[in-house]
Amino acid sequence: MDTLPDIPIAPELPLYPGVSLAEVLLVTTAEEAATARADLLAADAIGFDTESKPTFAKGEVSTGPHLIQLATENRVYLFQVGHLPDLEGLKAVLESREILKAGFGLGSDLAQLKARLGIEPRNVLDLSRVLRGEKPSQSLGAKTAVARYFGQRMQKSRKVTTSNWANPRLSERQLLYAANDAQVALRVYRAALAAGNLPPA
After folding, report:
1. What's the rounded Cα separation, in Å, for the pair 15 and 13?
2. Backbone dihedral region of 123: left (phi > 0), alpha (psi from -120 to 50 degrees) or beta?
3. Do the Cβ atoms of 10 and 139 come closer than 8 Å?
4. 56 Cβ partners below 8 Å, 6+ apart?
5. Distance between CA 102 and CA 46 in Å, rounded?
6. How many CB atoms lie within 10 A of CB 25?
7. Mind giving me the DSSP string for the chain?
């Protein structure tokens, strides 16, 4: 497995385009859940992330995750935990040993999914850990990975990051932010595999 060179995220890099709203489906009905389930179960690998309402007070315990994002090559499915039309379908996808789930910094995501929903994701690849190369004390985030593999600059708004993910009505900015977090992981996974930076599945 080759190590990755350090590449600074220069401001002059072109912007990472990300996904469009047309590629994002907020799953709210049984019919949409069935479509998502079939599409996701047919994939060999998917992008994976969750979002939680931030905690600000000392000692405050998170009630997340509030949103679960799963991405294929062409579609991103968003599931609001407070309004899940098909928990069993979501569980089937996340616990499948056949589907690789790629994401960044997934430690708390996995713990929260187990604690709140009883879901224990299997075949998970945390890109932050496996792509950090010879610097085991450091993790690698999506922005650095996008600069390395695509020569682009990924924008992540702190305002959106710390927004209320438990809100029943998410804004377009929230939907796109969440969708990009999941799909960029899948794209980086494919690029890293092609570059020889990951062992074959």
Report:
1. 6
2. left
3. no
4. none
5. 6
6. 17
7. -PPPPP----TTSPBP----GGGEEEE-SHHHHHHHHHHHHT-SEEEEEEE-----STTPPP----EEEEE-SS-EEEEEGGG-S-HHHHHHHHT-SSSEEEESS-HHHHHHHHHHH-----SEEEHHHHT-TT-TT----HHHHHHHHHS-B----HHHHTS-TT-SS--HHHHHHHHHHHHHHHHHHHHHHHTT-S---
Distances (CA, A) of 187 to 89, 100, 158: 24, 13, 23
pLDDT at position 140, please? 84
pLDDT in tens, 73-129: 999 999 999 999 999 999 999 999 999 999 999 999 999 999 999 999 999 999 999
Q: What's the CA gap between 177 and 154, in Å, rounded?
A: 11
Structure confidence at residue 63 (pLDDT): 77
